[in-house]
Amino acid sequence: MIALHPNETIIRAAHRHWIVISGGMTIVALLLLIPSIGLLIMPLLPFPPELISLLYYFFSLYALIVAVLAFGMWMDYYLDIWIITNRRIIDVEHKGLFYREVSEFMLDRVQDVTIEKQNFLSLMLGYGNIRVHTAGEQSFEARDLPRVKEIKDIIMSQKTIT
Q: What is residue 162's predicted lDDT score, i.e. its pLDDT?
């Protein structure tokens, strides 16, 4: 849980754009679809029952591995977040199941905000990367945020208020 300072309010919280996880989840669906079709056809073939049981076991093991992979992708998507308050920006990034890195910087230290959209899809859907440079010569970057121009405008407007 992230504690807010007194009189601090959350203005915007942003996860990565949904298109980022949709490509990986499409691959996961295909990885599960192909063997599932084989399992539906298998009882129609003249295999001994022991072989069918063994194939069901291996498919279950395969499905479990693919489900763990999908869960890891979803966790990385859902638990990484940028929180913009009226005083600071908080970057929460999960790296693995039990490791979380939280970075924060005050809005009054922001010197420059850069957004970049790398391809046609990001241009059409409005997502992209945002890089914030601070007075301490550091830069913080968030990748694939939705409505990245709106987030930049929020940061710049809050910077002028503080």
A: 59
Is residue 14 within 8 Å of residue 151, measured between CB atoms? yes
- Helix 18-41 × helix 49-79 angle, to 10°: 170
Q: Which class in CATH covers the domain with range 82-161? A: mainly beta
Where do the domains of the chain lie?
Answer: 20-76, 82-161
* CB crowding 100-139: b at 16 or more within 10 Å, else e: eeeeebebebbeebeeebeeeebeeeebbbbebbbeeeee
Q: How confident is the model at residue 146 (pLDDT cuts 50, 70, 90)?
A: very high
Residues 33-52: tens digit of each pLDDT: 988 887 888 778 888 888 88
The whole-model pTM stands at 0.76
Q: Give the separation between CA 132 and CA 147, rounded to whole angstroms.
A: 16
